[in-house]
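Regression test case RT-17, inverse folding.

Input:
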């Protein structure tokens, strides 16, 4: 039995005991172990070898590992800050900067690691400021973030004293970014499993609060996703969905035959009323639309840490209400609901 995470090669990352072992009587722990074993080979691929080696090398640098009392994890309203700038020697700084750059693109952030700012493509603090006011009190709750990216929101949840903040996301790339952050943050109540929303049945009636942001339009079957989320919420638990949407009052969804905003993996882009109808049909109650905004090129933009194309390149240069393919430009809608 594996009782330690992460799935990184030995010596890289922060090896700690498995936070989900404490819950083995209420989750399908054997199935979780099978899923971990299924993804394990992908983590020893050549692509990740040099990253794992560089992460392992940082372990010899004592100044990067202050005592527990001195360990710094702070939140100003924008950044998640880990480690103090003054504690880091210049050689370590260079090694860490290289590692951070080697893990580009950073899509979600911003973070600050020992004073090194990671200015990600998304200013995710803006989404957080739209989301957080609509969440119920998080103290001592079991919270899931499904499609958690590199864990920016998992770290933001930490500010509010959850019992467990569990992220699920199948991306190896984001998993490595998260593990780099956890190498220094060392927060045992935050856990990331590199598995997808299809595995919600591992966690029956487990979560008090579930966030699922930016995922439904990437999935072929959004109704199956919502039903899976419902099954893994406790009765009375809160769901928060954040989703790309198109403008409109009709309960309809765009199904782009080709790309949408240059993305290949977009299936259904609903209007806000359509998303509400999906959530209602999945059996949720108390459905509230909390926010519905156009995405701005300040919130999602190209940076040194994410140097590829970004929103400005995805919109029609003549008419920013359209994507380059001529579809309605994306909006972002937030809906909360409750499992009866
Ligand atoms: C648009 S990003 C949203 C990230 C973050 N939740 C946010 O709102 O900023 C979509 C995320 O969904 C993840 N994803 C892709 N397929 C998934 C699946 N089957 N289950 C869960 N997450 C998935 C991607 O790896 C990516 O991190």
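Golden output:
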């Amino acid at each position: 039995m594996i009782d330690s995470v992460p799935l990184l090669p030995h010596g890289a990352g922060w090896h700690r005991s498995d936070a989900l072992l404490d819950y083995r009587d209420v989750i399908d722990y054997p199935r979780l172990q099978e899923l971990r074993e299924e993804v394990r080979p992908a983590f020893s691929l050549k692509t990740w070898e040099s990253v794992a080696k560089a992460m392992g090398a940082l372990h010899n640098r004592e100044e990067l590992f202050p005592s527990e009392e001195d360990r710094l994890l702070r939140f100003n309203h924008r950044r998640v800050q880990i480690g103090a700038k003054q504690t880091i020697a210049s050689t370590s700084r260079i090694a860490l900067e290289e590692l951070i750059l080697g893990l580009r693109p950073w899509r979600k952030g911003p973070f600050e690691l020992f004073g090194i700012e990671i200015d990600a493509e998304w200013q995710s603090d803006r989404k957080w400021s739209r989301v957080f006011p609509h969440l119920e009190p998080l103290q001592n709750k079991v919270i899931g973030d499904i499609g958690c990216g590199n864990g920016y929101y998992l770290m933001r949840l930490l500010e509010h004293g959850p019992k467990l903040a569990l992220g699920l996301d199948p991306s190896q790339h984001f998993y490595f970014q998260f593990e780099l952050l956890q190498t220094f943050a060392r927060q045992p109540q935050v856990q990331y499993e590199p598995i997808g929303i299809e595995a919600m049945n591992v966690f029956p009636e487990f979560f008090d609060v579930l966030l699922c942001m930016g995922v439904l339009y990437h999935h072929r079957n959004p109704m199956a996703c919502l039903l899976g989320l419902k099954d893994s919420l406790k009765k009375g638990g809160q769901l928060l969905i954040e989703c790309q949407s198109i403008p409109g009052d009709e309960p309809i969804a765009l199904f782009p035959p080709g790309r949408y905003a240059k993305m290949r993996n977009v299936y259904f882009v609903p209007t806000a009323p359509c998303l509400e109808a999906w959530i209602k049909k999945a059996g949720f109650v108390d459905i509230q639309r909390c926010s519905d905004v156009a995405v701005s090129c300040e919130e999602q933009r190209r940076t040194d840490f994410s140097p590829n194309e970004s929103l400005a390149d995805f919109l029609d240069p003549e008419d920013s209400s359209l994507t380059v393919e001529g579809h309605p430009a994306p909006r972002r809608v937030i809906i909360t609901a409750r499992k009866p």
